[in-house]
UniProtKB/TrEMBL annotation:
PANTHER family: ABC TRANSPORTER PERMEASE PROTEIN MG189-RELATED-RELATED, SN-GLYCEROL-3-PHOSPHATE TRANSPORT SYSTEM PERMEASE PROTEIN UGPE. The complex is composed of two ATP-binding proteins (UgpC), two transmembrane proteins (UgpA and UgpE) and a solute-binding protein (UgpB). Part of the ABC transporter complex UgpBAEC involved in sn-glycerol-3-phosphate (G3P) import. Probably responsible for the translocation of the substrate across the membrane. This is sn-glycerol-3-phosphate transport system permease protein UgpE. It is a multi-pass membrane protein. The gene is ugpE. Keywords: Cell inner membrane, Cell membrane, Membrane, Transmembrane, Transmembrane helix, Transport. Residues 72-262 form the ABC transmembrane type-1 domain. Belongs to the binding-protein-dependent transport system permease family.
Length: 277
């Protein structure tokens, strides 16, 4: 007769998950509370702290009647365009580094690896100077360009393409395919997990960006959602925490849904690219 040992790991995982979930839940609760109740039940703590008693959708109505609607549209538009063009560019770069032979290939790959190890904030000001000289301040192009080339996405594509059997490429050459034809008709269709994972990387970089949009697009017409939240602190009525909580909830909700849906592809892609050199 065997006895089963009790494991604390599931309890620890559940507790850790709960700690991460509580701030999100509190933001969601704050979005449904009247303005005067946002911090009302913080001291002393009670069940009302994490559960609204007087719910209202007035915050949501007010939020989407403000300029935040335009900012949210800007965020969605900039992110979609950056992901679309970024996937094409990063996939082509990853293919070149994995398949094509040219002088200095390893050095180029080294530079790409180094590029995603450097925080973007460290190069934001020099990059802003270049964009300013090019006349790209307060333009969608200025917002989108830094998000298209992502070193981590290129690295991921390169590692994934290394795992595709070279016999498929050789068969394409026998059939008379060009290098681009091999890339487009053989490698891309086989790389769905890599596309999704690279897309998530590009999406998160662009969606959560704050410093760069703040620098390059101060005009209200081009302001993105992450920056637009600040408008609720500069108000004659004081800080509108109810609208801040509501806006933060919508900004967090969209990536939460997308990442949850594509999580299995991200896991499989990361697992498949390990050990390839």
């Amino acid at each position: 007769m065997t006895t089963r040992r009790f494991s604390f790991r599931p309890l620890a995982a559940a507790a850790c998950g709960l700690l991460f979930f509580l701030p999100i839940w509190w933001v969601a609760v704050g979005a449904l509370r009247p303005r005067e109740d946002i911090f009302r039940y913080l001291s002393p703590l009670s069940w009302r702290t994490l559960w609204p008693t007087d719910t209202t959708i007035a915050n949501i109505v007010m939020l989407f009647q403000s300029d935040f609607t335009r900012a949210l549209f800007n965020s969605v538009f900039v992110t979609v365009v950056a992901v679309a063009f970024g996937l094409i560019l990063c996939a082509m770069a990853g293919f070149a580094l994995a398949v094509m032979r040219f002088r200095g290939r390893e050095f180029v790959f080294f530079l790409i690896v180094v590029s995603f190890l450097i925080p973007f904030d460290a190069i934001a000001l020099p990059l802003f100077g270049l964009m300013l000289d090019a006349g790209l301040q307060n333009t969608y192009i200025g917002l989108i360009l830094p998000g298209i080339g992502n070193g981590l996405a290129v690295f991921l594509y390169r590692q994934f393409f290394l795992g595709i059997p070279k016999e498929l490429r050789e068969a394409g050459v026998v059939d008379g395919m060009s290098t681009f034809g091999i890339f487009w008709r053989i490698y891309l269709p086989l790389s769905r997990p890599a596309h999704i994972t690279a897309g998530l990387i590009l999406f998160l970089f662009q969606w959560q960006a704050y410093l760069w949009p703040l620098l390059i697009a101060p005009d209200t017409k081009y302001k993105v959602a992450a920056v637009a939240i600040a408008q609720f602190t500069d108000n004659v009525e004081g800080t509108q925490y109810n609208l801040i909580f509501t806006a933060a909830f919508f900004i967090a909700l969209i990536p939460m849904i997308i990442i949850t849906y594509f999580q299995k592809y991200f896991t499989s892609s990361v697992a498949s690219m390990g050990g390839k050199g």
